[in-house]
Amino acid sequence: MSNLKKNIKDLQNKLERLEERYVMEEISAESYRKFQEKYKAEILLLETELQKGEKEVSNPELAIENMMRFCKNLSVYWASAAYIDRAKLQRLIFPKGIRYNKRTDQCRTEEINPAFACFALLAQETAGIKKGIPELNIKYPNLVENIGVEPTTSCMPCKRSSQLS
Which sequence spans correspond to the domains of the chain? Predict the structure, then answer.
C-alpha cells in the first residue's frame, strides 16, 4: 500500500516537472500532452489499485471525487489500458454489452451502469448540455429502443420493429 502511495507521489512530481519544462519551453506542446496523458493515466491506475486494497470507505466524499475524476478521464484510461483492461472497463460501463451495426455504422447498448450514467448525467447538467451523454460520447437515440405499446412486427427474417408499418 505504501509503495503505491510512493509511486503516485513520484508520478505527481514527474507531472509537475513536466509542466515546468513545458512552461520554460524546454519541450514541445505535443511532447507535453503525450506525457501528461501518460502520467495521469498511470496515476489513475495506481489510485484504483490503492482503492482496491482498502477494505472500507473511510472517506466517501473522496471516493466520489476519485470516481468523478476517473469518469472524466475515461478516454485517457482507455487509451493507455491493455486489451484485457479495456474489456473490463467496457463490461463495467455497459453490463449488457455493445452491439455494432455495420450497415449503419452505429453502436447501441441496452444498458449503461447506473453509477456511470448518473455521473455522466451530472456532468451533462453541470455543462448545460441538453442531449446525449457527452462524457461517454453517447447520444440517447443510439441506445437500443425499448419495445413499447406498439406490437412487435416481423418485417424480415431475424429483424424486428417496434414501430407499426
Answer: 1-81, 91-165
